[in-house]
Every structure is written in C-alpha cells, then in structure tokens.
C-alpha cells in the first residue's frame, strides 16, 4: 500500500528519490536504530533522539513514566518524526557536488499512550528483539511495578514519506575532466567485541543469540 501524499509529506526537491510506499517506509524504520521526535511546547521547538520500534502501521517509543520529554507529548499532540540511515560519503570533483548516500523517513502523527500491560509487554519485547533477536527469551521479564513505571507512547503511521539516494557523484560535465579523485566511501554500522559486565565475578559464556548477532553483522 501507499501512504497518501500530503502537503507535509510531499517531496518537492529531487522528487524522483521519494517514495510513499509503506513497505519502503517500514523497512527504513525497522533498520534505523533511532528516530528524532520534533514538537513545539509553549511556542518553543524541541527535537529529541530516542529509540523506536514499529509494529504494523504504528511506531512506539518508551521511557520512564517520570520522563520530562515523554510527559510533554500529551495525547493527541502532533509531532514530526524522522529517521535516517547513512550509507556512504559521495565525493565529487567539486565541493558543492559532494553528497551522502542515505535512506530516510519523515512522518507526522498524533500521540497516544499505551495503557494496557499486555500491550506494553508486547511493545517492550519488540524493542528488545529488534536490537538483539533472541534476547527476550533469556532475560527476566518486566514486573507489573516496572511496567507501571514505564511510559510507552505510540503514533499511527498515516502520513509519511521516504527519501533515498544511492550511486556515484553527479559532477557537472565541465568538472568531469578535473584531476581529482571522485567516488563513494561506504558507511556502515557494526558491532565491536562484547565487553562482559559480571558484578558477581561469575563469568558466563557468550549466549548464542549474541554470537548470531555478531556473525550476521
């Protein structure tokens, strides 16, 4: 399906790089590690980076129930959410032709609060499994008290667009003969060696789900 093109999500510059396809938008949201939520409070602009997870056509963020940031996002407050992934430095022969290869999403939505504990558990499990598949089954699950101390906000994805760039630099014809190196330097995120924290001094073997995470990196 495609999300509707609106005045807020319509891509005007380099529109050929834009997409309103839900599968493309969902894939970028799922692969990005965090998003930035922008909103206005008392006529002042705010932009907060935070982790997120998508379930169907809804996006979720969470934190402490006492979080000043989360308490500002009262129900029905409209926000702008952006997420991006940098894939490469695009080095051209002229300064102003340099660019990035990237994938990005911007969406607009109203806030709602997740109240039901079972829904909270489902969202928290999805958060964990998005980052470290298999981790949820090994760890201690949240207690009722911990769930009550956690605020989860959701956003219906109804108004969204994606924009992407890939490929080599686009040098002007006059610059193509300049004796300057041009091309793409790929960027990627990867995991480093695990650093165990064992306060009880009882070292444990690396779990299989972490080994798989590192092997697939």
Output the keywords.
217 residues, alpha+beta, Pnp Oxidase, Chain A, ten-stranded antiparallel beta sheet, 5 helices
Which ranges are low-confidence, i.e. pLDDT below 50, for 5 or more consecutive residues? none
The CATH superfamily of one domain is Electron Transport, Fmn-binding Protein, Chain A
Helix count, per DSSP? 5
Arithmetic mean pLDDT: 93
Report the sheet-strand fraction: 25-35%
Globally, the shape reads globular
- Give the CATH topology of one domain: Pnp Oxidase, Chain A
Strand tally:
10
Q: Work out the radius of gyration.
A: 21 Å
- Structural class, by secondary structure, is alpha+beta
Under the CATH scheme, which architecture of one domain would be assigned?
A: Roll
**Given this structure, which CATH class of one domain is correct?**
Mainly Beta
Distance between the termini: 30 Å
- The helix content is 10-25%
Please give the largest β-sheet. 10 strands, antiparallel
What string, H for helix and E for strand, traces the elements in order? EHEEEEHEEHHEEEH
Describe this structure in words.
The chain is globular and about 65 Å long. The protein has helices at 22-31, 68-72, 117-131, 144-148, 208-215; strands spanning 18-19, 35-41, 44-50, 53-55, 58-64, 78-91, 99-114, 150-156, 159-165, 183-186. With 217 residues, it is α+β, with helices and mostly antiparallel strands. The chain contains 5 helices and 10 strands; from the N terminus they run βαββββαββααβββα. This is Pyridoxamine 5'-phosphate oxidase family protein. Residues 194-217 have a biased composition (Basic and acidic residues). It holds the Pfam family Pyridox_ox_2. Residues 189-217 are annotated as: Disordered.
